[in-house]
Amino acid sequence: SAAPSGLHAAYSRALERLPEYLSGGGYEPYGLGVLREALADHHTRRGTPTTPDEVLVTTGAQHAITTLADTLLGAGDRAVVQSPTYYHAMESLRRAGARLVPVPVGRGDRGARGGHDHDAPGFDVDLFDSTLRQVAPRLVYLVPDFHNPTAYTLTPEERAGVRDAAARHRVTVVGDETLTDLDLDGDPDATGPVVEPLAGDGTSPYVVTVGSASKSFWGGLRVGWVRAHPDLVARLARTRQSADIATAVLEQLTVVELLDDAPAVLAERRRTLRAQRDLLCGLLARALPQWRVDVPEGGLSLWVDLGAPVAQALAAAAAAEGVLVNAG
């Protein structure tokens, strides 16, 4: 969707701050100190106490996921993922040599506020725990909030179960929180998450989270981050040296400005996305009433039941009409 109205002003304020950084080389593999501090404060306000040395700034969330995969995985290692899940994350894990092991997403009461009582259960923590015990993965990738593509949100009990299992099996769980801010049915002016962050109180070294300005603010703003134990942050910074060395300074300063004005910017973005979601769901209901379209409480995806196994054919037909549809 289009950039929020405050983005140009944020860039302008960032440009005014840029001269402070022009006397140096511009390479900050960990990210600018001012942004790492702002992100640490952001996580702390959400309920996960965080210090700047627990933050690595990346060139978007996809870069963060790829850097984690390249750092933690090797050829033949197993990685547990939800099924289905974000396609490009699976690509990154596979390129790092991982063999993917699926666990069901869960479709129960959606976790955040309830009201979506489907036949399938929520996220099965017991199955998740037994899977970790049986396959001994090196990494787990989860989308805890407004999951892409199903929109499922883990309940507080499920989050606690994930943290306990991660500690018990000593496996790194990567929580992709790029969609966390996009709660479309709650208070658009809310400043906190739907439920507690996956990292909880932040004391577990096994729970790592990924965030992104691209989803919260604007797709063209390629700035992401990782929240992790300082030792892992240092390893990730060494890995990223072979890819992009550092993230662009002006964009980092812009994210600092946006985080400072986050309540207003996010409220506008949520209202825009809610209107787009409602329009699309309404059009689908009128044009294709035989399809089952669950209205997502947040995020950027619709998970549509076509009533028959024709998703690939639909995606191909849609592409011929200039419409991009991802097959499930």
Task: Outline the structure in words.
The protein has eleven helices and nine strands. The protein has 328 residues and is α/β, with parallel strands linked by helices. A seven-stranded mixed β-sheet has the order 1-7-6-5-4-2-3, with helices on both faces. Strands 8-9 form a two-stranded antiparallel ribbon. β2 (78-83), α4 (87-95) and β3 form a beta-alpha-beta unit. α2 runs parallel beside α9 (249-260) and α3 (61-72) runs parallel beside α4.
- What's the alpha carbon Rg, rounded to whole Å? 20 Å
State the helicity in percent bands: 40-55%
The first-to-last residue Cα distance is 22 Å
Task: List segments where confidence is low: pLDDT < 50 over at least 5 consecutive residues.
Answer: 109-118
What's the shape?
globular
Structural class: alpha/beta
Mean model confidence by pLDDT: 92
Write the element-wise H/E pattern from the N-terminal end onward: HHEHEHEHEHEEHEHHHEEH
Read across the widest sheet, the strand sequence of neighbours is 1-7-6-5-4-2-3
Per DSSP E runs of 2 or more residues, the count of β-strands stands at 9
Reported for the largest beta sheet, the result is:
7 strands, mixed
Number of helices: 11
Estimate the strand proportion.
5-15%
